[in-house]
Amino acid sequence: MGILAEKYGEIYSLKMGFKKTVILTSMEAMKTIFTNEAAFGRDITGMSGDRILHKNIGIASSTGKMWEKTRTWTFRTLKDFGFGKSLDMECFIKTASQSLFADIDSKIETQSGVIEIDRYFNASILAIMWKMIVGRIIPEDEPNMEAISEKGHAFMRSGVLGMGIVNAYPFLRHIFPKTLGYTVQMDYFTTCNRVGKHLFLEMENELNSSQLTSHHNSLLEKFVQNYTAGNDPELFNCENFQLIFQDLLLGSTDTSATFMEIVVLYLIVYPAVQEKVYQEILRVSPNGRDISYSDRKE
Ligand code: HEM
């Protein structure tokens, strides 16, 4: 890419398959392009278009006014349910880490302390997001969470090569769906959409039967209440909820879980840092109590 930039300049385009792709080869070029509104467009061909049912819905793939209002409403509402607020987040993290720590303890007993770290944090992060979106985790939710977690991971693993080929030649996804990872990707989207729709309809029934008008316990409840009240039908409808649900889970789980895996790897590679962290925890919490955000001042 760099060699081509010497000949054609730091911004140039390449035709890959059916598609023209713009290549940016310097930080300056990226700043120039990404701060320009013309670059806000989305690629909604091939699998990306199938994911959003070829409609302007959700957050990560929508455009224009729809993107603006869906994104603004979603993140503002998530904040109401604790997203980014240290006290609430702390509570969610504590609950999720308790089951994680219990699992680590049991693995220390049963597997001589050997823990497969790959995908280890996904379920806990999914649980935190689920709690904020749905407002509860009941036993009936668990098979759905497990399916989303497993299929989400398979989606992430389905490979960039297949995606790259489909990106260049979108029609190939229908000819070699398995080889190019399309089957796995669509399986994840379909599962997420099925669960999202089920939650939406369940909440709609609940609201209709209880005539609840003001209490909001979750993003889902607030969304469906807006839907039943007939507010902005373009924003508040079942398909848009399905995509918001999918975008939030897809956007948060693997990214944050991978970050946690990197932290573990870093501590393994740098034992001196590991020891420093360990000593700091001992100093701040000598009696083994849970550490909290407020301890950061120490
Ligand atoms: C370490 C953690 C995270 C990393 C590295 C990360 C990274 C990113 C990146 C690079 C994008 C831009 C993708 C693109 O436009 O092509 C993005 C978008 C997005 N992320 Fe994250 N993210 C993280 C955590 C989260 C969390 C916790 C949430 C859920 C609340 C989330 C939800 C989203 C959504 C909904 C979008 C689409 C935004 C839009 O298009 O307007 N992400 N993220």
TrEMBL record:
GO molecular function, a single term: iron ion binding
PANTHER family, alphabetized:
CYTOCHROME P450 508A4-RELATED, CYTOCHROME P450 FAMILY
Question: Is Metal-binding one of the keywords?
Answer: yes
Q: Name one GO cellular component term.
A: cytoplasm
Q: What is this protein called?
A: Methyl farnesoate epoxidase
Q: Which family, according to the similarity comment? A: Belongs to the cytochrome P450 family.
Q: Which keywords does UniProt give here?
A: Iron, Metal-binding, Monooxygenase, Oxidoreductase
Regions that span the bilayer: none
**Matching Pfam families:** p450
Alphabetically, which GO biological process terms does the record hold? organic acid metabolic process; xenobiotic metabolic process
